[in-house]
Structures are given as structure tokens and as C-alpha cells.
Amino acid sequence: MKKEKILDEIDRNILRILQEDARTSYREIQDKLGISIGTIHNRISKLKKNGVIEGYTLRLSNEKLGYRLSFLIRIDCDGKFTEEILTEIARIPEVCSIFHTTGDQSAALICRFKESEDVHNFIRKLNQRKYISRTNSNMILKEYKNSSYVEFQ
Fold it and tell me: Is 19 part of any domain?
């Protein structure tokens, strides 16, 4: 098995800058790091090719879009159908994240809703699904951190 190359300091610095703002231009990165635009271009190309950079995302304000309610919903389901169930649930627009978990529940969902009636209907429909035996939901009062960023040492 081939050992993966560890990112060097230049790669980590480029990734730190892009995590802060994925729209940062190569010229701005050059100014911050003091390396050539060609080097930056080559490094980013390799990071994409190697799958380190999977894409670029947009962060939206759920609150400003009207999604004032966030919920952590854990579900118990028949293990033989977990993949099928979670794949179906992934298509539901209110579902932001899905995690297949160990422990008492089969999976955990992070969902956003506009109104309490929307939450009620969503959970009712989940509980009616074939192979789902139980749900446990908690309203998220406040987010302290919600990030997929990696902090490089």
C-alpha cells in the first residue's frame, strides 16, 4: 500500500486561506504567502486531483432565509435497510446533514425548518416510514460551532 504524502506547510497555508474565503484570488494568496501564482495554481490543482479539495461551497444564513428552527433528530431503524432509508431521507430538502451512527440510534439528522408545524409533519412522516421504529428529536437552541473546516497543526 502506498503511503499518502503528508501536506507540507505551503499546502496547509493555502488551505487555511481558502477555508477562510474560497473566493480568495491567486494574487491575494501570493501577497499573503509570498509565493508565485504558478506555484499556487499547481498546488491547488494537485490538491483537487488528490481529492483534498472536493469543491467550493457557499454558506447561507438559514435565519435570513426563514429557517428559524434547527433540530437534531435521531432515528432507530432496521439495520438491514439503513442505507436505503438514509439515502431516501437525504433527498428531503429540510435535511442538512445525515450521520450513520453507533450506539442507541441508527442515525442522526440535522434539519432546518421554518415553522413548528413543519417540524411536526416531518417527524410524523419519519415515524410512519417502513423500517423506522422510533425517533428522538431535540430542538437546537444555539449553535456554537457548525463547520467542516480542518484546523491544521
Answer: yes
Residue tagged 415515524 (cell numbers): 127
Query: Mean pLDDT of successive 10-residue segments in the chain (153 residues)?
Result: 72 93 95 96 95 87 92 94 95 95 93 96 95 95 84 69
Supply the pTM of this predicted model. 0.77
Q: How far apart are CA 106 and CA 110, in angstroms?
A: 14
- Angle at the Cα of 142 from the Cα atoms of 132 and 107, rounded to 5 degrees: 20
- Return phi, psi of residue 86, to 5°: -70, -35
Q: Do residue 79 and residue 39 come from a single domain?
A: no
Whole-number Cα distances in Å, 24 to 59, 63, 129: 15, 26, 45
Residue 146 lies in a domain: no
